[in-house]
Amino acid sequence: MKDLPSLARFGGRVMSGLLDVTSDPAALDSEGLWGVVAGFEGRLTCARFRDVRPLPRPATPGARWHGPGRAQWTTSLDRAAYTAGVRRIREHIAAGEVYQANLCRVLSAPVTSSADIEALADLLAARHRAPYAGMIRLPGHGIEVASASPELFLRRTGTVIESGPIKGTGRTEADLLDKDHAENVMIVDLVRNDLGRVCATGSVTVPELCAVEKHPGLVHLVSTVRGELKDGAGWGDLLAAAFPPGSVTGAPKTSALRIIEALETVPRGPYCGGVGWVDADRRTGELAVGIRTFWIDRAQSRLLFGTGAGITWGSDPEREWEETELKAARLLAIASSGARPVGGPARRPSAT
Length: 352
Fold this sequence. Notes:
Strand 9 and strand 10 form a beta hairpin. This protein is about 25% helix and about 35% strand. Helix 1 crosses helix 6. The chain contains 6 helices and 18 strands. It has one domain (about 5-55, about 70-335): 4-Layer Sandwich (Anthranilate synthase), CATH 3.60.120.10. It has an 18-stranded antiparallel β-sheet that branches. It is globular, with a radius of gyration of 19 Å. The protein is of the alpha+beta class. The protein has helices at about 80-95, 115-125, 180-195, 235-240, 255-265, 315-335; strands at about 5-10, 15-20, 35-40, 45-55, 75, 100-110, 130-140, 145-150, 150-155, 160-165, 165-170, 205-215, 220-230, 250, 275-280, 285-290, 295, 300-310.
């Protein structure tokens, strides 16, 4: 929506008064307050803002949002294709090519030209609280993203770097399996290796391993990895070492990315990338993994949302499909609440 102003909301703050937009990560070590979207396929958008103020609580959360009807959601991989993909990844594991790979699908539904991503962010804030929730809207730059992410990708405080990979999901703690714990440990090792490439030797530690966190409608296993940046290292070095996030790729990362590219039929875009803010003046910042995230594609008049699961040798294809359904169901219901259905038939089988 070109008539709406550029805006970002992260960490309880509203950023406005757009100054410039760049794809150069070195800008994040220059000056000013930045909103950041790093797409999974590598597109980086950094937007510097002039003004910042506390985020007000909307009087009527989501009142301006009119989403698609529930039956209008479609999926890039249906149940048969997704479970076949899980079996294919298990074949790659049996062949020794990879230990774990994240298989994702992108759900989409039509929206009207008046759909405002900020209104959806208000609705998410009211009905699905998340520790790394935020949104960014950059008309003319193809960026309209609202996230209810529960996962920390990278937090920087001076030279201290922290990541909080999530692996392992269930409706309750009792649903978590040995497979989930093993998967978390695999990804922690990967993240330790990623941060080790840009952190001082011996500084990378794991203060917390496989902690259980409760979120709306489900639980996750979450670990914490921490390190101290090498002298002279900045955001460009950090992103080059750690991106894309290990929890949504797999291990080894290069092999997992090759498998993902072969099995997934559409780009992930902001989903599974990084979304958040950087204060270059104070050398602080916080990027979430772009999961539980919606974005609008104006060229196709579509609202999109991604969901996925980590696949290991112990994965059951049907259970992994159900995990993707669990992760999506609550958020799709929120985005479809109060819907005024947009015309046009669904192009693929319904996602839920």
